[in-house]
Write a structure and sequence with these properties.
Radius of gyration: 13 Å
Structural class: alpha/beta
Oligomer: single chain
Distance between the termini: 8 Å
CATH architecture: 3-Layer(aba) Sandwich
Number of strands: 5
CATH superfamily: Response regulator
Order of helices and strands: EHEHEHEHEH
Shape: globular
Strand order of the largest sheet: 2-1-3-4-5
Number of helices: 5
């Protein structure tokens, strides 16, 4: 099986670093972006299988990024995991087109299970 590519977009560098470290232990190819303005172009270049995106980001919010990905012929196939501390995060993420939602703060095991399920569904 080819290695899955995961793109992580969160304006909190501590979150992107932690998620990248956890996923590299799972033999997943990761790329991170803390500035949502650059995320779309980087995804076009990287062509990830899975996008992990925060809802609350400055300039371009996570739901705006999700909608742009879903409207793109090159990227609409991506499995999207949305993460957020927002009380209405699940609703916002679902309406934008995310496949699944994880509330912050989250348990690392729960996170890994969600990513593993995403990997299985993108085979």
């Amino acid at each position: 099986m080819t290695q899955k590519k995961v793109f992580i977009c969160d304006d909190d560098k501590g979150i992107t670093d932690m998620l990248e470290m956890v996923l590299e232990l799972e033999d997943v190819d990761t790329i991170t972006e803390t500035d949502s303005v650059h995320a779309y172009d980087k995804m076009l270049e990287f062509q990830p299988d899975i996008l992990i995106v925060d809802l609350w980001m400055p300039v371009i919010t996570g739901d705006q990024l999700i909608k742009r990905v879903r409207a793109s012929d090159e990227l609409k196939h991506i499995f999207i995991i949305c993460i957020s501390a927002s009380r209405d995060g699940l609703q916002v993420a679902t309406e934008a087109g995310a496949n699944t939602f994880i509330a912050k703060p989250f348990d690392v095991e729960e996170f890994l299970t969600t990513v593993e399920n995403a990997v299985i569904s993108t085979v």
